Amino acid sequence: MNTNANLNASSRSVNLELVWKEFTGGSEFAFEQLHRHFYNDLYQYTQKIFQDQQHSYDALQDFFLKLWEKRAQLPQPTYISAYLFRSLRNQLLNSFRKIDLTFPGIDIQSPTIGIHFSPEDILIEKENSKELSEKIADALNQLPERQRDLIFLKFYIGFTNEQISEILETNTQSVANLSHRALQNLRSTLSDQEFILLFLTLASCFYRH
Amino acid sequence: MDVEKDNEQLPPFEFNRKTVDQRLIQQSYEEISQEIRRKRRRKRLSQWALAIAIFLIGFPILYYTGQQPVSSREIVVQSGSQNKQVQLPDGSSIMLAANSTLRYPEHWKNQNRRIRFSGKGFFDIKKLSLYNDLQPFTIEAEDGLVEVLGTSFTLDAGKQSFLLALNEGKVRAKIGNDVFELLPNQMIRHYNGNIQKSDINASLYGAWRTGLFTCNNTRLVELIEVIKASYNIEVVILDPSIEKILVNGTIEMSDQQVFFSTISELFGIKTTTNEDTVRISR
Asked: What pTM was estimated for this model as a whole?
């Protein structure tokens, strides 16, 4: 049973619960499987936060090493992917509290996860769509941080509301509300014309499949 | 089983999902597993140390130097009494002044370029990138840490002092808990408990490599500033007209006494030395 079938990193089927159990029991082989399975998604998340490959890489190295060191005390989570994202998120927040000037622009008093989208993240299958991608990325970046975080987890990674509620340490209802608000905000920032364009591109994608 | 798809609207676009290069994932895990093995070795080593310590009970003092076991060997380069040019595996080059020491790991890693240094040197660090990202180069000195991407600069780092004069590029220096960013022709100096950042003519700070100041309408006081910082002395200028003196041509600077006697002769001024202070008058 694969609880994380919607994660885009894994095309192979892995019995994650068993892998997790073996990993917490001290198997390095299982640890490598976990690393390979989740690296991509965790990396994309970290990269969106730091916008710097070296920092993202280092932060993830740190994260995996700590995970290995604490293996014996880790619980058996309902969703392993959500558990890893939550741990990574907390580790990043903790590191922001201690940071010197390495990451300018991060508020040290009350650190938050600031996802930043770029136009290349937006897929529009139409010519001259560059401007539109920029507009959407812009609209996304104007959302409050928590809504951006949610958009990324939900639509980029593909987590469900329940999984997101575990990551953000809240309940499913607030995640649903948050996602509703985020979409409403997007709708109001993008103009009608842009919206129609988007609708058409999406419809054409849909038609093609 | 997955939770049912939430019964909600979708956003009006799709994300372009990227996947990270497989080689990066592999590199990441290799480094992690090396680190795991290194820690395990260290643990085993400390268990041995404990066993030996128990064996040694009865001796009055257990002396622990606090030195970490070195996991891989280091290459040590010492310049001796002359300047010495060193080429690092990544193509960076360093000109060591006399009595300087440079250490770098035998197993050099371009993605983690890190060396230890004491003394004085001119660094010409190669810019390297991996996966389009610049690879930093870190220099650990007694009194501070210097992080660069690709630049050239003079670093003079002894036990009591720290001087960094940047010619090109951009560097970040960490002295104690303070972090400084330097741009070309800026200098950071830590001496006598003071940290000072100032604008300078960086080429003059590299003059020690040839032992000559090459001047072209250069103000004498600028040369004196370099001498002050290089030899950690105080210079007091008693006659303000000295500050107007301009210098052309080359002046010997590899020895402070030679420098002061040369300028005395050239410009008809008097210099008197008293301990670490040189006084200059007409």
From this structure: 0.49
